[in-house]
Automatic annotation (TrEMBL):
Belongs to the glycosyltransferase 28 family. SUPFAM superfamilies: UDP-Glycosyltransferase/glycogen phosphorylase. It is found in: Endoplasmic reticulum. Signal peptide: none annotated. NCBIfam families: PssE. It holds the Pfam family Glyco_tran_28_C. GO terms for molecular function: hexosyltransferase activity. It comes from Candidatus Thiothrix singaporensis. This is Glycosyl transferase family 28 C-terminal domain-containing protein. GO terms for biological process: dolichol-linked oligosaccharide biosynthetic process. Residues 16-97 form the Glycosyl transferase family 28 C-terminal domain. Keywords: Endoplasmic reticulum, Glycosyltransferase, Transferase.
Length: 122
C-alpha cells in the first residue's frame, strides 16, 4: 500500500507515501486499485485509465457534492463505494468482488460553446 498525501501537515507513520504528484497518471499501472475521496477529477481520471476505484466520500463537508458523486458512480456501476470511512478496511478486503462486474466508463466529450452555437444556429 502506498499513500498519496495532500497539502495538509499529516504524514503517515506506518505506510510508504509520496506528496501529491502531477505525474501520477504515468505510474497508474504500478497499482492494483485506488482508494480516493469523491473528487470528480480524481475519479474520472482513474476511470478513463480503466483503473479499479474504491470511492470514499467526505461526508463531513458542508456541501454534499462528494456524497452525490459517490451515489452517481455507484448507481451507474462505475466504482466500488464505501459510504462510511470506518468501513474502509472491510471494503478493501472485498475489492475484488466489488469491482468485478463494473461497467466500463465511456468518456463523453463536452464542449459547451460548440454545443450552444450548434443549438442556436441549427
Amino acid at each position: 500500500m502506498t499513500l498519496q498525501t495532500g497539502d495538509g501537515a499529516y504524514k503517515p507513520k506506518y505506510k510508504s507515501f509520496f506528496d501529491f504528484d502531477k505525474g501520477l497518471k504515468d505510474r497508474l499501472p504500478e497499482y492494483d486499485f485506488f482508494i480516493t475521496h469523491a473528487g470528480a477529477g480524481t475519479i474520472f481520471m482513474l476511470l478513463e485509465q480503466k483503473m479499479r476505484v474504491l470511492v470514499v466520500p467526505n461526508t463531513e463537508r458542508a456541501d454534499k457534492h462528494q456524497i452525490e458523486l459517490a451515489q452517481y458512480v455507484k448507481s451507474n456501476n462505475l466504482c466500488a463505494v464505501c459510504q462510511n470511512v470506518s468501513d474502509v478496511a472491510m471494503a478493501i478486503t472485498e475489492i475484488d468482488r466489488a469491482t468485478q462486474n463494473l461497467q466500463p466508463y465511456e468518456k463523453v466529450e463536452f464542449n459547451a460553446v460548440r454545443d450552444l452555437l450548434r443549438y442556436i444556429y441549427e
